[in-house]
Design a protein that fits this description.
Structural class: alpha+beta
Shape: elongated
Number of strands: 3
Strand content: 15-25%
CATH topology of one domain: GMP Synthetase, Chain A, domain 3
CATH class of one domain: Alpha Beta
CATH architecture of one domain: 2-Layer Sandwich
Strand order of the largest sheet: 1-2-3
Number of helices: 4
Radius of gyration: 24 Å
Oligomer: single chain
Helix content: 40-55%
Largest sheet: 3 strands, mixed
C-alpha cells in the first residue's frame, strides 16, 4: 500500500518550485512567453519528470513555447541538480496543460448562457401583459 505522500510526489513538488524560478529568471528567449508550471509528475523510479506548463499570453504559440522549453531541458536539469540534493535528476519532458484554457473557455460559455437566459426572461416580462388586480 503506497504512502499518502510518496517520495516521487515530494520530489515533483520541489521540482515544480525550482523550475518556476529557473524558467522565469534563467531563460531569456522571447519566444517563451509567460509560462507557469502547473504540475510535475515524477515516475516512481525518479528517472522521468513530466512538467505540465500553461501560457497565459494567448499570442504566443504553444508549440514554439514547448520547443523552447524542451531544448532548454538539459540546461534546466543541470541547474536543478545544483539546487536539489538528488542522486540523479529526472529527465524533463515539457507537456502543455490545457486545463486552464479549457476552464476559461467553459467559464465564458457559462457566462454567455446565463446572460442569454437573463435576456430571455427580461423579454418575456416585457411582452407579458399585466393582469389587473381583481379585488
Amino acid at each position: 500500500m503506497p504512502k499518502d505522500f510518496s517520495r516521487s510526489r515530494r520530489v515533483g513538488e520541489q521540482i515544480q518550485r525550482e523550475l518556476a524560478v529557473l524558467i522565469q529568471q534563467e531563460i531569456k528567449d522571447p519566444r517563451l512567453g509567460m509560462v507557469t508550471v502547473s504540475a510535475v509528475d515524477v515516475s516512481r523510479d525518479l528517472s522521468v519528470a513530466k512538467v505540465f506548463v500553461t501560457v497565459f499570453d494567448e499570442e504566443h504559440d504553444m508549440t514554439q513555447t514547448l520547443d523552447v522549453l524542451n531544448r532548454a531541458a538539459g540546461f534546466l536539469r543541470h541547474w536543478l541538480g545544483k539546487g536539489m540534493s538528488l542522486r540523479s535528476v529526472p529527465t524533463l519532458k515539457f507537456i502543455y496543460d490545457a486545463s486552464v484554457s479549457n476552464g476559461n473557455r467553459l467559464s465564458s460559455l457559462i457566462d454567455q448562457a446565463v446572460t442569454s437566459d437573463h435576456d430571455k426572461h427580461q423579454e418575456q416580462d416585457l411582452e407579458a401583459p399585466e393582469q389587473p388586480d381583481q379585488d
